[in-house]
Amino acid sequence: MKLLISLAVLLSVNVMAADQIKCEARHEYVENGRLVIDANPLEVDSQLGKTLYSFDGEKAYYSINLDDKTGRYLIAINFAPNYTRGSLSSGVLEAGGNNLTLSVVDGHDVHKIFCLRN
Q: CA 25 to CA 10: how far, in whole Å?
């Protein structure tokens, strides 16, 4: 019984941490002289103190791995078809700190992960 209660507490704490930021993947490009912004929310998958935010777009895979306890993150945008080209950054998301953004620019194509604190 104690194990079930402990797991329930861990999961509820983890869900609260995952709700602290909202992230989206953005693909911005110019088409027929107009700026087009294709924005999609990153899906959230939380497991025992780690949270993965991700979106698999047509041209790129966007992801953030976040340690809910320490705030350490690894943020990446990797490009199809083999996902070996892209951008990667790491750091610490501090409580009450700034928002988080990673951008990759390729001519008129801009791929971004943009996260806001709740």
A: 28
Cβ burial 95-106 (10 Å sphere, 16+ → b, else e): eeeeebebebee
Tell me the per-residue pLDDT of 16-42, one tens digit each, with 9 for 90 and over: 344 568 999 999 999 999 999 999 999
The confidence score (pLDDT) of residue 19 equals 54
Structure tokens at 37: 């912004």
Q: Is 71 exposed, middle or buried (0-12, 13-18, 19+ CB in 10 A)?
A: middle
Domain spans of the chain, in order of start: 2-117
Percent of all residues in the chain with a pLDDT value above 90, rounded to a whole number: 59
What is the rounded CA–CA span in Å between residue 1 and residue 5?
6
Whole-model pTM above 0.90?
no
d(CA 79, CA 57): 9
